[in-house]
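Q: I'm writing up a methods section and want to include an example of the input and output format. Could you take the sequence below and give the corresponding predicted structure tokens, formatted cleanly so I can copy it straight into the document?
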Amino acid sequence: MGNMDLKSILAKVELIVREAGLSALSLQENLEEVRFKSPKDLVTSADLSSEKILVEGISKLFPEHRIRTEEAGVIENFSKDASLQWVIDPVDGTINFSRRIPLWGVSVALLQNQKPIVAICYLPRLGEMFMAYKNGGCFLNGKRIFVSNTSAIEKAIVSNGDFNVGNAEKIRIENLNNFSEEAKSCMRVKCMGSAVAEGTFLASGRLDGFVMTMSYPWDIAGISLLIEEANGKVSRIDGSPLTYTDGEQVLFSNGILHQDFLEILKRAKDN
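A: Here is the clean output for your methods example:
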């Protein structure tokens, strides 16, 4: 699958992602349904509406591809091409979304042999569309973007994933340790509550690092490709490569500070 093919795929799927994001945005002020899918995690009517638009649109364009979404899981039969899979988060940052906090978005990525090759991340409330394809660069609203050039860890701004995800007690302790060690070395430590917001902010140079102590493929596949194509770096928090499987602990950075962040996370783990 060459670059021209990927560019064409990107252009087609952008339209679907934009439609899904605008649909969610239109529902944000008057949500018809908000329910708990776990004690501290919500799903809204907007998640379901956005997911329906994305799944139906992508399935129509690429009927041979597999699809996995946050809400519905793997939603098609396994006779399809196992090497190509779309991973979809219809509303990333649902808690933010439900409280009308503008940091939320739609994240869609195409994986080939478990590696992202196309990514579209849309922040509807901010009017920002981020897109990338493998070896094609990263773009915000059509303009090429890059990660920051921050080279001193004491000037770095880093963000972390939310505390109440998965095994909440384990995540809470790990995040607290990470925050503590990061605060000793970095200029600021943030927690924005949306991986798609934090990942796109890193790709566009607004952040220098982002740490997730619990992730799923739909959380990280899109933003990983954006960050790499913006000249950043991604890895597990021990420095090993990502495999885009459930439960990975992930570090994203501007690349320059990647080793500094790895050392900070190692100190946090040793505490």
